[in-house]
Amino acid sequence: MSTRFSCVGCGKCCSDHHVPLTLSEARMWAEDGGQVIVLVEAFLSNGLGLPTTQREHAERRSAVVRSGTAEARVAITFAAYNAGPCRNLDADNRCGIYERRPLVCRIYPMEINPHIPLNPAAKDCPPQSWETGPQLIVGGTLVDEELATLIERSRQADREDITTKDRICAALGIRTTALKGDGFTAYLPDMAAFASVLDQVQLQPTEQATGEWLFHLSGDDVARDVMACGARVVTEAASDYAFISLRAA
Question: Origin, by domain of life (predicted)?
């Protein structure tokens, strides 16, 4: 069994999707006048909040941090904030920055996370997108070598950028995370401040991040489990971020 893909230019993948960015792409996005959203999730080093099968991948893209007396690992995503059509999408659904578009845009429709298989039904693309075009997957294996290289580049950037992202967040006062699998905390930083801090932090590669992380959780039951491990939990309402719950209603 194989999976084919051919873009039909519908523009759906460029609307209402926050596109993960590398550090250099986030700087470019800010310079172009775009908004970056910061999405944060973490798991405790004892494994709470993380399926065992996902641990290796999650550890490789996370930074070791403190929360109370507990050790945690925080994963931080800088993404292009697209509420509605991407700011670079023109009236004909063409990308205005195609030659320098983000790495994740080049990888689409493939997934970056190795634990998420490509599922055409979960994509916004119309059925005809999957009827023609080159083969992407044959017998469960990705056969497009260029895509495989781009995916590895994206994963490598995730691993290499994480400590710098932690320092950027510390400088911006971002220190509240969600528990992996329970939700995300989402911040919309002032972009002038974001760009300035990003530049400063990259000029000081040996400086350490400061400040412990706090957990915002979806319910008292989850909070009890996290606090029992020694981690600190936010009790007041969010003021500078939104909590995106992944918990089933």
Answer: Bacteria
Query: 164: closest CA among 194, 102, 208, 195?
Result: 208
N residues, the chain: 249
Separation CA 70–CA 232 (nearest Å): 8
This prediction has a pTM of 0.94
Instruction: Print burial letters for 98-129: b (CB count within 10 Å at least 16), e (below 16).
Output: eeebbbbbebbbbebeeeeeeeeeeeebeeeb
Handedness of CA 49, 179, 158, 19 (dihedral sign): positive
Query: 113-121 long-range CB contacts below 8 Å, 24 or more apart?
Result: 113/57, 114/57, 115/53, 115/54, 115/57, 118/3, 120/3
